[in-house]
Design brief:
By secondary structure, the protein is an alpha+beta fold. The protein has eight helices and 21 strands. The protein starts with 21 loop residues before the first helix and ends with a helix.
């Protein structure tokens, strides 16, 4: 059966791959590609080095000129040994065989810290200097503030120490520990050790703590008190001095003082701390000034207000002048109490007591007289009050009587007025009734007179014919809507000759649907017929 490509791999008939099918060829090519890739990776790793973040690469040259062992620790380009320059993060081409590499972590200085760098190689320092500059061996003058640095630790050593922090309320007094020839950042002569003239204000400073020592001194206004021993103070710290006359005087006072920041270096250099200033300056000067100024005043002067105030001013001014020479500022020196010996005060006290006793006796006499005057005036006041009360009661009684009289008169006048008005009303009612009766009689008379006149006129018209007048009156009072119907009343009369014909008077007839109005003596048609029938008969008989 013939071979087809659909069911088997194609075999190369000729060429270098004669007899090879496609699968075998692909396998060989794939293997070659993998080997080539592995070879490429090996070559890449040999010639290229990767430095991750936070690290650097230290290169050591195996060939080159030798370094000077007395000066150098790190080699420059072209020299044999650890190279001074390091490589940062990323890929770098490094020639293998002739160079070796080493990864080192970067030097990190945290916040609030400072790095002190010491060069292991370089030129030696001169004798008059203890801090190294760039290219010199020893502790470097410049320090590293917080951050990350690529420092070759084969040639440098870094000591991480705390930064210098000055809190509010304090200043920093700087003392140099090492010699240096160059002026520092404080502007002082750096050729000597010792305290610097400039102080550090509150803040954070990146100083070389091996070069400078910072003494933190509190600043502000302080008080120093001198007190006599009492229940609250067991220790007697009062200032004692002799006054003019030989008497020993003791005084209590409070002194407010301050050391300005610019004077703090000299104070720290001379005394060390605030407590030493209190002991060696304030205490000593206060006793000295009180002793010097006390010789100018007698015990009597210290008792009187004016001269005592003068002693206060002299004491304060003398203390300010003496302490200013020690770079201490005095704000106030307040004397609270001055104690004078009893041997001096007793005669004065006795004389004062006698004088006060005499004054008291006189005051008592005046008080007794005043009390008598007061008692007399009180009796007068009571009498006046009783008199006023009696007069008030009498006036009240008179007013009440007047009120009663006015009330009686008013009631009588009201009764009189009521009686008068009642009489007038009765009279007016009688007159009204009389007038009304007279008017009514006159009206009736006039009506009757008019009626009689009307009848008389009607009788004159009918010529005193009573029947005619009666018929007129009857006709005048009939309802205009009255209907009269005549019908026969029996055979053999006029009415029977009419046959079945009815005879109606020509009178108006009420419209349909309307009620027939009532006439005098007539309410319906039947009633009218009944009433008119005898009258018609009578009228017919009369005619």
């Amino acid at each position: 059966m013939p071979h087809t490509n659909d069911s088997h791999d194609y075999a190369f008939p000729t060429g270098p791959f004669a007899g090879w099918n496609r699968s075998r060829l692909l396998l060989v090519v794939g293997g070659a590609a993998v080997l080539l890739l592995i070879l490429l990776l090996m070559v890449w790793n040999i010639f290229f080095k990767y430095v991750p973040p936070g690290q650097h690469l230290v290169i050591t040259a195996k060939n080159g000129t030798p370094i000077d062992p007395e000066v150098q620790v790190l080699a420059n380009p072209g020299q044999k040994g650890v190279q001074a320059d390091v490589l940062g993060e990323g890929w770098h081409f490094i020639m293998p065989v002739v160079n070796s590499t080493e990864l080192e972590s970067n030097t990190v200085i945290p916040a609030g810290k400072v790095g002190i760098v010491t060069a292991l190689g370089g030129r030696p320092l001169p004798d008059d200097r203890e801090l190294a500059e760039e290219g010199e061996r020893g502790m470097q003058r410049n320090v590293l503030p917080p951050g990350a640095y690529r420092i070759n630790l084969h040639g440098y050593k870094v000591d991480v120490v705390d930064a210098t922090e000055i809190r509010p309320g304090f200043v920093g007094v700087v003392r140099r520990l090492l010699r240096t020839r160059e002026p520092d950042l404080f502007g002082a002569d750096g050729s000597r050790r010792g305290y610097l003239s400039k102080v550090l204000q509150p803040g954070l400073y990146y100083l070389n703590t091996k070069e400078f020592e910072v003494l933190k001194s509190e600043v502000g206004i302080y008080q120093t008190s001198f007190r006599t021993r009492d229940n609250e103070h067991t220790q007697d710290t009062a200032i004692t001095f002799p006054c003019k006359g030989g008497f020993s005087i003791s005084l209590d006072c409070t002194i407010e003082w301050e050391v300005l920041p610019e004077h703090m270096p000299s104070i720290v250099r001379e005394y060390g701390s605030r407590h030493e200033v209190d002991k060696k300056v304030i205490d000593v000067q206060a006793h000295a000034i009180a002793r010097d100024k006390g010789f100018d005043y007698t015990a009597q002067d210290l008792l009187e207000g004016t001269t005592r105030q003068k002693f206060q001013e002299d004491f304060t001014q003398g203390l300010r002048t003496a302490c200013a020479a020690k770079n201490v500022t005095i704000h106030s020196a307040f004397i609270r109490r001055i104690d004078i010996p009893d041997e001096y005060l007793k005669p004065i006290r006795d004389r004062q007591i006698a004088a006060e006793t005499e004054i008291t006796a006189k005051a008592k006499e005046v008080t007794a007289e005043t009390e008598n005057d007061v008692e007399r005036e009180q009796r007068r006041i009571q009498q006046a009050v009783a008199k006023v009360e009696a007069e008030t009661k009498q006036k009240v009684a008179n007013i009440e009587q007047q009120v009663d009289n006015v009330q009686v008169r008013t009631d009588a006048e009201l009764e009189k007025l009521q009686s008068d008005f009642t009489k007038r009303i009765t009279t007016l009612d009688s007159e009204r009734n009389q007038l009304l009766g007279q008017a009514k009689a006159d009206a009736e008379k006039l009506v009757k007179t008019a009626t009689s006149s009307l009848y008389q006129m009607k009788m004159d018209v009918f010529k005193n014919d009573g029947d005619a007048f009666l018929r007129y009156t009857l006709a005048d009072n009939l309802n205009p809507n009255l209907v009269l119907r005549l019908f026969h009343s029996g055979s053999g009369t006029f009415w029977t000759n009419m046959g079945n014909k009815n005879m109606n008077f020509l009178m108006p007839i009420a419209p349909a649907g309307e009620s027939k109005p009532k006439a005098a003596g007539v309410s319906t048609d039947n009633a009218a017929e009944k009433d008119l029938e005898p009258k018609a008969r009578a009228q017919k008989g009369t005619e």
